[in-house]
Automatic annotation (TrEMBL), chains A, B:
Origin species: Kribbella jiaozuonensis
Pfam families in UniProt: ABM
Domain of life: Bacteria
ABM domain boundaries: 1-87
GO cellular component: cytosol
Entries under InterPro entries matching the protein: ABM_dom, AI-2_Isomerase_LsrG, Dimeric_a/b-barrel
Name this polypeptide is given: Antibiotic biosynthesis monooxygenase
Presence of the UniProt keyword Oxidoreductase in the record: yes
Molecular function terms, GO-annotated: monooxygenase activity
Amino acid sequence: MARYDVPAENHDRVLELLRQLAEASRAEPGNLAFDIFEDIDDPTRIVLLERYVSRDAFAAHRETDHFRDLVLGQIVPLLTSRTVEQLDAEDQ
Amino acid sequence: MARYDVPAENHDRVLELLRQLAEASRAEPGNLAFDIFEDIDDPTRIVLLERYVSRDAFAAHRETDHFRDLVLGQIVPLLTSRTVEQLDAEDQ
């Protein structure tokens, strides 16, 4: 789960980049889901819910060109904050 | 973290109820945050990110009148699915 704070002026650009990232990530063999959520009352708050078959698959995701180019290269510089939590699936 | 699938015809009503729930929940002594997110490409997918000072505080939340009335009594019947994951905060 990743949580982004996006300055209003960067909002549309970040969403555009995130859609590109989602498309590329969903094509990864180890990816099960990549969904982008926005706070209904505060569009500067974005949450990414990604699901991978394993922790290794998630690690492999972070080694891909699209992660380096889109996340590290383009998206992160547009954010005011970013936190990432690695969670083990436990549906109740 | 709660994930709801909301039929389109119930969307606005569920959001209205969730805002009431958020307001009541934020007033609980053990609550740190209650945020409502919507999938940017699929408004039928809603995610609630709630944060409590302890697991006991989260348990107390589920014993409140507003939880019983709003969640169990009004919101759940309007959903097609609901999953709840209890996560221990580990910001990276």
